[in-house]
Amino acid sequence: MATPVLRWCCPGRRWVFAGIGGVSRHGRGVPTGSTSSGKRGQSSVAQQPLITAQKPRKGEREWAAVVGLEIHAQIASNSKLFSGSQVDFAAPPNSLVSFFDASLPGTLPVLNRRCVEAAVMTGLALDCHINRRSLFDRKHYFYADLPAGYQITQQRLPIAVNGSLVYSVCVGKRRSQMVTKTAGVKQIQLEQDSGKSLHDSLRSQTLIDLNRAGVGLLEVVLEPDMSCGEEAAAAIRELQLILQALGTSQANMAEGQLRVDANISVHNPGEPLGVRTEVKNLNSARFLAKAIDYEIQRQINELENGGKILNETRSFDYKLGCTVPMRDKEGKQDYRFMPEPNLPPLLLYDSESLPTGTDPQQVINIDQLREQLPELPRVTREKLVQQYGMLPEHSFALLNEVGLLEFFQNVIKETRAEPKKVTSWVLNTFLGFLKQQNLAVSESPVTPSALAELDLLDRKAISSSAAKQVFQELWRSKGKTPAQIVAEKKLELMQDAEALEQLCRSTLEAHPQVVTDVKKGNPRAINKLIGLVRRATLGRADPTVIKEVLERQLSL
Amino acid sequence: MLGRTLQEVSEALKQGLVTPTELCQRCLSLIKKTKILNAYITVSEEVALKQAEESEKRYKKGHSLGDLDGIPVAVKDNFSTAGIETTCASNMLKGYVPPYNATVVQKLLDQGALLMGKTNLDEFAMGSGSTDGIFGPVKNPWSYSKQYREKRKQKSHGESEDSHWLITGGSSGGSAAAVSAFTCFAALGSDTGGSTRNPAAHCGVVGLKPSYGLVSRHGLIPLVNSMDVPGILTRCVDDAAIVLGILAGHDPKDSTTIQDPVKPFTLPSLTDMSKLCIGIPKEYLTPELSSEVQSLWSKAANLFESEGAKVIEVSLPHTSYSIVCYHVLCTSEVASNMARFDGLEYGHRCDTDVSTEAMYAATRREGFNDVVRGRILSGNFFLLKENYENYFVKAQKVRRLIAHDFVNVFNSGVDVLLTPTTLSEAVPHTEFIREDNRTRSAQDDLFTQAVNMAGLPAVSVPMALSSQGLPIGLQFIGRAFCDQQLLTVAKWFEKQVQFPVIQLQELMDDCSSIFENEKLASVSLK
After folding, report:
1. What is the mean pLDDT of residues A224-235?
2. What Rg do the C-alpha atoms of chain B give, in angstroms?
3. Is B14 a catalytic residue?
4. What is the DSSP letter of A324?
5. Bridging pattern class, strands A129-130 and A196-200
6. Is B64 a catalytic residue?
7. Rg value, chain A, Cα
8. Is the pLDDT of residue B365 over 80?
9. Contact residues, chain A, for B335 at CB < 8 Å
10. Cis omega (within 30 of 0) on the bond before B171?
11. Are A130 and A348 contacting, i.e. CB atoms less than 8 angstroms apart?
């Protein structure tokens, strides 16, 4: 969520200082934050010299923020991008290092086919143009965890360009409405990951782990089409789901398989884009949103106070919740790019251009990969909405948790209950329990069939509150079926009509004041009576039945 | 025995006239006796003897691995050799023992070759004299030859003999000297701008630079990746063909090698000369070319013509830009390739531990000589964002023009180009070091270096001795991947010119027996 000083103007687009009531001197609320061309520094809207010449007075200007993202996703592959070393996040330090990874002189890169396929699939899923010919380049900088002194990347001609990422953000008072947005995908490039440096400041030592050195990365560059932390976080979440659906990356941010750098600038609508800063290494969606919102606010404050924004690299201090300039000079370095001479151009084919008589192991056919693309999250959600009449936000919620959709579908298979009811069970009760206990779907003590059975009971034999009780019991005592619990706890609905009549009667007798209220015509008074009766039945009677009996007894 | 060619000695081994161990021991003793040449940085005596023993067992069982089984070979010290120090003649890699073999080394070993040692070079192969390595310069065996000494005696008097030793050329001078002085039968060099052909010409041996992509570079410590090729130094063209047949072919570890399989081959004898068209590039007739080399060059052209070949003058118009273009591309790649030498994973590391950056700086300062540092500095300059377009990109364009020159010439019907390899014969060290490394490299690479830009095969074949009694070689340049055709022409030429054998008796007067042909008289040769 946004920092308190800020508030939303048109959905997620522009930032307006509190206290001016959203009145802009520039009038129309055309969002100028995003330029579709992706070129930075020049706005497509003509400048207004008179206004720009004036010194802004605090709180009088309207601000638009522009956010672009660079995402590094580790490719899910058994071996590294250019060597045969295994990839394993949890392996002991320096146990997965080939001669090439350690940059022993004379070793040469050999491109991993799986990584190329992952890049092509990701490109196709993001509607990119796949370059039939792409090139590798060396990007030079000295760093202890970069053994060769350069990273092999795709600077000049990346494998995929010009795509788009469609994502949704919540809007509205209750944040229950989903609005679809699009961020341009400038390019996707293949590159090597670096190793890891562990600084032991106590002994002033740096320890190097090269297990990660040379692991394949997909660098996805999103155009500056976003305007706040929430949008950025939503875009990243969607990308994450896409990568996971494709199987091209596990995209686990906590394990560093997905890392995000954000480029952020602010400007007055109608004026050229402002100077941007880069916030590096954001390792969770929440911090990403926080860092971006903080940085936007910082830049606005800075400019409002007559200051200047420096083109610099900043990092997010998650403890303090603010961004701070990075001390290293990485941002200002000249990387001295040059073509990687040891790798010939990467050529890709489609079914038409595929040269005859080639070894299929030696070529990659884009059309073939396109056919193998799995269903993308967007489509899955649309299907859920269509098939089950689900609310769009519920379809999002189902996909957002790993394994939840599968769980839902398994419950659906085993019950004839209303899908809406199942959705509610899964998203409210089940997910609520999971979150509360910080468990993954796979760790749940409640199986889909148990939930399905419970749902069945819910419709016939027990009240909804009793059902919740059964659920709690299911959670606690693994192995018991809902039927067993219902029997044990005597939770089945009261079938004895006479007993219920009796209970109702005694309740009416005990609460004459409420009865008077009912008779006076207070519509809510009857609910109080129903509640009292339910309590007396220990929640085992159906409120509609109670109501009927009460109304009859009161001869309403 | 040692004076023989690889092919001859291979035959002798097969006939049991000599055993691998005998051969190995003789070569080892010769290496010791010719220590003054400084051809070897590391002599892998134990390894070689062990390999010889294995080879001998195979011969006894009749399971020889082929032509190279039991043959002593040497490898330039910029090829990785598992378990054997690989220094690139640099402080940076002093003490570095690679954990793996270069593909070409592995292929030689797989064929049963005996690895005698690692040969001397210019630091990281940057030079044209084999004078700029930390282990000191390589001396040209011809400095001690009877042919040269006799000529010198006639001219100068009273000067100390040894102060006038000649350079081998470079940077594969150690390999050239090793083959020339009979300490091995074939040696690996590397060739980026002429580093195999140049010393081959100066040392009177055959120096082959195969087509780029024909032979794996995996394990060759790079100078310029886009131009480096493992080179082959032998005493005759047939031997070069044998070694090439073994080394050539796709290597999954080097993505720039050709996919098509390459089979070992033997060179046919050229019979119908009328179908051959020899091109003489007019741009190679430069004022710096010594008159002696020039006259041998035209003599060679005449030889082809008189035997029925078509000899025509051709033009390679962009030749003059080659050196400056090479300078930009070479230094840029050097700057990049040398970035890995930071003292962390392997190689030299300084004592400074103030900061990582200080450690890098001191390590690299101590590890590299001035030549290497100079190239790194220029290369980084050319790669700067502001210079990249003006230098690197332009140089690449010029490179394409140069390559195109060759394509045009070959498309016009020329089969092979005939050029000088070097401007003159080998010069004395004292004279050579009057100019700095950069100037020398620029001069000496003149005829050889455009070939690397174009990735073509080329071979230097010794033709005759100069008036000073020193070898002069000529270069043949072939079409890309037409290495066999090139070698076939070179073989014909070699047969015609009958280049004299080096007479090294004086250098090794106390091991004269080595040169006796005790058993060879009975060897029947094809």
Report:
1. 96
2. 22
3. no
4. E
5. unpaired
6. no
7. 30
8. yes
9. 140, 336
10. yes
11. yes
Strands A277-282 and A137-140: unpaired
Is the minimum CB–CB distance between A105 and chain B shorter than 8 Å?
yes
Cross-chain residue pair A103–B345, CB shorter than 8 Å: yes
Cβ distance A104 to B357 less than 8 Å, yes or no, reads: no
Q: Over 90: is that where the pLDDT of A498 sits?
A: no
Arithmetic mean of pLDDT over chain B:
93
Nearest to B345 among A147, A334, A338 (CB): A147
Give the span between the Cα atoms of B109 and A367, in whole angstroms: 44
User: Chain B contact for A147, CB < 8 A?
Assistant: yes
**Contact check, Cβ <8 Å, B385/A206:** no
Q: For tokens 């796949």, what's the residue? A: A130
> For residue A71, what are the contacts with CB-CB under 8 A and spacing of at least 6?
A218, A219, A220, A221, A222, A236, A239, A258, A259, A260, A261
H helical segments located in B229-384: 237-247, 291-306, 322-337, 356-367, 370-383
Distance CA A87, CA B165 (A): 56
Using pLDDT thresholds of 50, 70 and 90, give the confidence band for residue B159. low
Contact status of A200 with chain B (Cβ, < 8 Å): no
Sign of torsion over alpha carbons B310, B311, B316, B322? positive
Amino acid identity at A77 = S
Q: Does A341 touch chain B (CB under 8 A)?
A: yes
Please say whether the beta carbons of B292 and B466 come within 8 A: yes
| Both tokens assigned to A250 | 């596990």
Q: Would the CB atoms of B222 and A105 count as touching at under 8 Å?
A: yes
> Phi and psi of A547, rounded to 5°?
-60, -45
CB contact under 8 A, A142 and B254: no
Q: Which of B100, B255, B388 lies nearest to residue A344, judging by beta carbons? A: B255
Chain A residues close to B253, C-beta within 8 Å:
108, 110
DSSP A405: H
CB contact under 8 A, A206 and B332: no
Query: How many residues does the structure list for chain A?
Result: 556
CB B485 within 8 A of CB B478: yes
